[in-house]
Amino acid sequence: DAKTTQPNSMESNEEEPVHLPCNHSTISGTDYIHWYRQLPSQGPEYVIHGLTSNVNNRMASLAIAEDRKSSTLILHRATLRDAAVYYCIRVSSYKLIFGSGTRLLVRP
Amino acid sequence: GAVVSQHPSWVICKSGTSVKIECRSLDFQATTMFWYRQFPKQSLMLMATSNEGSKATYEQGVEKDKFLINHASLTLSTLTVTSAHPEDSSFYICSAGRRDGYTFGSGTRLTVV
Predict the structure, then answer these.
(1) Is B46's CB within 8 Å of A34's CB?
(2) If we measure between CA atoms, which residue out of B7, B4, B8, B9 comes closest to residue B25?
């Protein structure tokens, strides 16, 4: 099973950090961890990805547990535009298999 | 950055007709593209992997004769929904992979009446 486990929903206040957890306890050594987000009626948007080390880009940071069985997407300062469904995906055999994702609500 | 263009963004068709959806990689070559379907309030479901110059690989439960995929060039993949029925109404999304992640089209909302 290539799916991951995420909370159904989370809430955050605007301009506060958000930590979105993801469990991928059966991940193999060569599977990458990708994060995407999707706004209503749009295609998913790439956020970040990593293999073993923590990763940072202009959108977010990705913290990967040492045993790689879990990871956390960190939005350093949530804005209203960050309200979306966030998908954590194990990439196996180059295919993205989506789980149910976390719906992030950002309160002004 | 990498751009994937999907067309049309929405289409309404009559039951029994066929509809073609195009997915183009605008600034890179994509030997592999992926097609997804998404029902309201649900996650994306992978339908098939489209390979340039060869047959598509369909996920279990997806009818290959109903969802025809053609990937004739390195920048274009098409999905044709044949003999569409109301239950085929959905949001169809394509994507292409690159070394720095996967890029998705903006999606096509198909409504079969």
Answers:
(1) no
(2) B4
